[in-house]
């Protein structure tokens, strides 16, 4: 079966090589010429009745991008643009023959719902970056920075600009005033800027644009039309300082005898954020004692692997402009695609050290490390050099320890500085890009108990991208390196960590050096592909991570010691035919080796995604994974041959234009040798009950039976015993979101997620033959007279030689994890850039070892847990030039 699968993949890919795909037809570049407005600029009221609008012509003749590419849109759209020394004025007339059907959904900023219009401005005219301004028919603003020629859209950017909308008998109007201080451009007499204007008609899922750009086109910004006529304007130096104050109140269960757990805690503090245009092309963002109390909680998770759980960044300072610092070096959606030189969650995370306590001792340990200050310098020069510099200092953190009223402090996190530098230079109008990145983490370690942390950690790399044939084809090289320094203890900890496992006894090319005080590693990726044209796009490449590569001081690395080869290809039909609006057929293939030249995995998948003419969507896929060699499952022991399997999935999504819409999916995994069987159901139902109120429910259910779930390692004489069991795990959650948007500037958001995961372990066994060809020969199950369980101390005892005396014992691995997390956030932007937050967060968490899944009892138990409540009031005020 495996041979047939790979043969089919190779035949398909081989055929693609000989197909001569038709590149998207060149479209004439449109030009809009604006004029200065004198002496009276338009009033931004959404009426477009100011006489000055008659001074310029309409930009019109929009063309559909979807669903019917290159056809005329169902409704006409036109726009006008004026400017003065301080502002750009844009008016868009969105005609609609059925104005009563205009979807004017009220929502929070940067949530693109309903009918909307959008303006993209490449004011650098570098053909790679742009600023995007969007407004929907209800007047809700959205704004994004566009980088990498349209590959990245960053909605965390929140410039100060002004817009009003109105609906009339002809459709709707949007009037915008965009201060030039919010844009970046070179100083010259005559300006040419890239320009794109788009419109979305919600009820038809129809997208049209002024400058037509095919969905098959390799990129976005370099294909914009042009805005001409702007003369003698100078880039404005933006200055914005936003101080804030916060009041917090925490209530929780009192713990008798614990002086730090009295049931009530309050804080009052402040800080400030700011933004300064330090040059015509560069912006300095800075923050002192930043607060992130209004940020939504991370989702609950149970992780039974050795790999660190990755959580996306949600804190505003680090989210804004994050694409500038991105240095991802793995293509595609696979277990390694999160690896990056910069993972901002490292900054301000939980302290690394947790103090050991004696009897009658209690500790107050900070949940997060305090960020004393941080700054970012970002921008792009007129010569095409993109610059990103970030520096952040986190404070020394102490745990306060109480012993019968006597208190002492113990360091749990050292003073640390994080530095990140990212540079990219455009050559030949962006057809070639060379760049590099460098990061440095420096810790001041003065006490022995945290000497297992690295004193210094440096990472970096160089990247190269070249495109040709209208940027349809590309070749790229990305390199990375790392150098860490520290005590012998720190480097020993690193060598033995789950990222490296140098101690593996069957890895002759690896060895642990207890005298090591520095470690060097390298990695990278080489890729070639076709990213534009039709009907086929493809990507081929390979990446690697040497055994010594270490990024996790300020980056993210799942696993070192691996070389991966991959192929991705997609056949797409984007023009409607029969019952379809679009069809995408994708094939993937991937193989991996370690640096001992052992093939550790092979796999691939075939996916089909379709959109129907009624705007429903359907996807189906099948994944194949061969038996694979895990170098991590024994936590530093020998590599273990694990069964592969087949995974099938389907996904159905209803019309997004309806008041009630849903998304439903199902997945099933069947392991080879009947070693594993897992099923998952997921879905989302959204009720748009009014234009202002939206409620969504996202349930998920996962069941997993695995014959080889790691339990622990024990010593038996001079030998190691790697103990496994069959796990029966069930996980259920329900993510609820409520959005009440009273005005575009006054919103109420609720997020809540009850989460229950249980695991019951049976059929305990030990590994005996790590790479036996037959699955059943790799382990021996314990007999009834070899294993016993004591419910009083919750330990299993093993009498391996059956002499009546137990040889080793281990804790009951069963678990019940119950958690509820929620946030209620009331946000009022009382003047542009200045905000009042009222926040209520609640958390409930409990674990025990029952292992049974009884939904009604589990839910009752969950909501009987004493809650941890946090109430926050935060007010900020923006001072702007």
Features:
881 residues; mainly beta; Immunoglobulin-like; 24-stranded antiparallel beta barrel; 9-stranded mixed beta sheet; 4 helices; 48 strands; 4% helix; disordered N terminus
Task: Give a description of the structure.
With 881 residues, the protein is mainly β. Among the domains are: 26-231, Immunoglobulin-like; 240-276 and 289-306 and 677-768 and 779-881, no CATH class. 4% of the residues lie in helices and 51% in strands. The protein contains four helices and 48 strands. The chain has a 24-stranded antiparallel beta barrel. Strands 1, 3, 6, 7, 8, 9, 12, 13 and 14 form a nine-stranded mixed β-sheet that branches. Strand 45 (815-831) and strand 46 form a beta hairpin. The longest helix has 17 residues, at 2-18. It is globular. It starts with a helix and ends with a strand. Residues 1-25 have low confidence and may be disordered.
Mean pLDDT: 92
Total helices: the number is 4
- The end-to-end distance, rounded to whole angstroms, is 68 Å
Outline the biggest β-sheet: 24 strands, antiparallel, barrel
Helix proportion of residues, in percent? Answer: under 10%
Q: Tell how many strands the DSSP assignment holds.
A: 48
Structural class: mainly beta
**Quick one: overall form?**
globular
**Residue runs with pLDDT of under 50 for 5 or more positions:** 1-25
What portion of the residues fall into strands of 2 or more residues?
over 45%
Radius of gyration: 29 Å
């Amino acid at each position: 079966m495996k041979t047939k699968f790979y043969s089919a993949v190779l035949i398909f890919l081989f055929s693609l090589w000989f197909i001569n795909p038709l590149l998207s037809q060149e479209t004439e570049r449109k030009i809009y010429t604006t004029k200065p407005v004198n002496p009276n600029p338009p009033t931004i009221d959404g009426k477009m009745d100011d006489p000055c609008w008659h001074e310029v012509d309409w930009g019109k003749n929009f063309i559909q991008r979807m669903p019917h590419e290159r056809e005329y849109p169902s409704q006409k759209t036109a726009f006008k643009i004026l400017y003065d020394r301080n502002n750009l004025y844009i008016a868009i007339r969105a005609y609609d023959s059925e104005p009563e059907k205009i979807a004017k959904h009220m929502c929070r900023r940067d949530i693109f719902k309903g009918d909307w219009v959008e303006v993209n401005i490449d004011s650098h005219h570098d053909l790679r970056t742009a600023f995007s301004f969007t407004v929907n028919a209800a007047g809700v603003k959205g704004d994004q920075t566009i980088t990498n020629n349209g590959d990245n859209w960053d909605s965390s950017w929140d410039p100060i600009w002004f817009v009003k909308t109105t609906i009339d008998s002809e459709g709707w109007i949007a009037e915008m005033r965009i201060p030039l201080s919010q844009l970046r451009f070179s100083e010259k007499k005559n300006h040419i800027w890239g320009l794109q204007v788009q419109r979305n008609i919600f009820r038809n899922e129809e997208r049209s644009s002024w400058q037509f750009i095919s969905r098959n086109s390799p990129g976005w910004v370099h294909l914009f039309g042009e805005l001409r006529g702007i003369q003698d304007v100078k880039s404005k130096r933006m200055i914005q300082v936003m101080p804030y104050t916060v009041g917090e109140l925490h209530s929780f269960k009192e713990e008798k005898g614990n002086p730090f757990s009295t049931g009530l805690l309050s804080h009052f503090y402040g800080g400030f954020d700011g933004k300064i245009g330090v040059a015509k092309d560069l912006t300095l963002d800075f923050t002192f004692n930043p607060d992130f109390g209004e940020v939504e909680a991370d989702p609950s998770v149970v992780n039974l692997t050795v790999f660190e759980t990755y959580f996306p960044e949600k804190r505003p300072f680090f989210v804004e402009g994050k694409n500038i610092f991105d240095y991802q070096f793995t293509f595609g959606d696979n277990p390694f695609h999160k690896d990056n030189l910069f993972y901002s969650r490292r900054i301000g995370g939980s302290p690394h050290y947790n103090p050991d306590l004696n009897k009658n001792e209690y500790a107050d340990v900070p949940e997060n490390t305090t960020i004393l200050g941080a700054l970012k310098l970002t921008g792009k020069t007129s010569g095409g050099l993109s610059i990103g510099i970030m520096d952040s200092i986190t404070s020394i953190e102490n745990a306060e320890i109480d012993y019968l009223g006597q208190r002492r402090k113990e360091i749990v996190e050292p003073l640390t500085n994080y530095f990140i530098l990212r540079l990219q230079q455009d050559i030949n109008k962006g057809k070639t890009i060379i760049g590099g990145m460098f990061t440095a983490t420096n810790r001041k370690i003065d006490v022995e108990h945290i000497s297992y942390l690295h004193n210094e950690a440096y990472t970096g790399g160089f990247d190269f991208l070249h495109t040709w044939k209208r940027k349809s084809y590309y070749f790229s090289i990305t390199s990375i390196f790392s150098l860490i320094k520290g005590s012998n203890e720190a480097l020993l900890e690193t060598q033995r960590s789950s990222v490296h496992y140098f101690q593996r006894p069957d890895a002759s090319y690896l060895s642990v050096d207890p005298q090591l005080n520095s470690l060097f590693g390298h990695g990278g990726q080489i890729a070639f592909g076709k990213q534009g044209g039709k009907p086929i796009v493809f990507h081929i490449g390979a990446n690697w991570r040497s055994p010594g590569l270490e990024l996790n001081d300020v980056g993210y690395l799942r696993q070192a010691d691996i070389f991966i080869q991959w192929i991705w290809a997609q056949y797409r039909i984007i023009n409607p035919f029969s019952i379809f609006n679009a069809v995408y057929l994708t094939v993937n293939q991937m193989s991996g080796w370690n640096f001992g030249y052992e093939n550790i995995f092979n796999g691939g998948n075939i996916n089909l995604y379709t959109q129907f003419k009624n705007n429903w969507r359907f996807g189906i896929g099948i994944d194949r994974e061969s038996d694979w060699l895990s170098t991590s499952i024994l936590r530093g022991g020998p590599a273990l041959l694990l069964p592969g399997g087949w995974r099938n999935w389907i996904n159905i999504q209803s019309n997004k234009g309806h008041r009630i819409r849903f998304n439903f999916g199902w997945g099933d995994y069947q392991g080879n040798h009947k070693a594993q069987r897992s099923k998952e159901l997921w879905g989302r139902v959204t009720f748009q009950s009014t234009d202002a109120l939206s409620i969504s429910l996202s349930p998920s259910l996962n069941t997993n039976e695995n014959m080889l779930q790691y339990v622990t390692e024990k010593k038996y004489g001079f030998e190691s015993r790697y103990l496994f069991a069959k796990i029966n795990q069930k996980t259920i959650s329900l993510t609820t979101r409520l959005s009440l948007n009273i005005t575009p500037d006054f919103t109420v958001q609720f997020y809540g997620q009850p989460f229950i995961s249980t695991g019951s372990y049976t059929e305990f066994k030990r590994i005996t033959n790590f790479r036996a060809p037959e699955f059943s020969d790799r382990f021996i199950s314990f007999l009834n007279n070899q294993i016993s369980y004591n419910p009083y101390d919750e330990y299993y005892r093993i009498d391996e030689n059956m002499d009546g005396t137990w040889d080793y014992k281990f804790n009951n691995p069963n678990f019940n994890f119950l958690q509820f997390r929620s946030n209620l956030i009331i946000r009022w932007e009382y003047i542009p850039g200045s905000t009042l937050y009222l926040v209520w967060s609640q958390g409930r968490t409990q674990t025990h070892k029952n292992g049974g899944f009884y939904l009604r009892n589990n839910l009752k138990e969950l909501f009987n847990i004493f809650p941890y409540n946090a109430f926050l009031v935060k007010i900020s005020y923006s001072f702007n030039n």
